[in-house]
Amino acid sequence: MSFEKKEKPLFISFEGGEGVGKSTQIRLLADRLTQAGYEVYCLREPGGTSVGEQIRSILLDCANANMAPIAELLLYEAARAQLVTEVIKPALAAGKVVLVDRFTDSTLAYQAFARGLDKELVNTSNIIGSCALVPTRTVLLDKDVDEGLKKAIEGGADRMEAEGREFHERVHEGFEYLAHRHDQRIVTVACQERKEDTHELVFAAVADLFNEQAARPYEISSELLQKIKEQK
User: 32 near 20, Cβ under 8 Å?
Assistant: First the structure.
């Protein structure tokens, strides 16, 4: 029995703490889906637009260590509003698959749970910044906090990565809370030692959204892994 490719627009967010490998897993899933005939957009937050990338440079610059939490929140939401309006909504309207590195769950984990901003305030800000857009599915990559931080800061830490361990523990706890509260949308995937093994778990978490062709055995080329490594 064969199935036609589903044309329903799909929006999948990837979440997790520092150094969990979100960008790598997004690229691997995108490659698999592209081979199955889907048109895929890979995006990141903050960023993905000219405006968003400029905001990203401000948010991650260690020179801005004194940034007020509320200013930080509003900058993330501004970048998100631009990305949703300029890229995500048009792509979804055209029936594309959109994969994004971080979305509203990260804002709750970082700005509410870790920074201590009021959760309802952050929720309201998320609704405004996302233009009320909610991912079809969210993949939460789970990894030991110390292991992830060590990996993330290998080439130097940005402003968020440079926060203390307790901050990142609170981020981790925030994601756990969100995964429990939104268990119909968020699927937790434990990161494995091999990227290929993690990918198979990631695909299993979203396989029901895609056609039979995407579910066929998929071999990750060494060339793709090398390209991903070089682009980091």
Answer: no
Four-residue CA torsion sign, 190, 126, 55, 89: positive
> Residue 215 pLDDT more than 90?
yes
Q: What are phi and psi of 104, to 5 degrees?
A: -65, -30
Q: Are 186 and 105 in contact (CB under 8 A)?
A: yes
> So what's the pLDDT on residue 1?
31
Residue 123 exposed, middle or buried by CB count within 10 Å (0-12, 13-18, 19+)? middle
The token duo for 61 is 């610059």
- d(Cα 139, Cα 207) in Å, to the nearest integer? 12
Q: What is the average pLDDT across 176-202?
A: 97
Give the residue-averaged pLDDT of 85-111.
98
Which runs of consecutive H residues, i.e. helices, occur in 88-181? Answer: 89-93, 104-107, 119-129, 145-152, 165-181
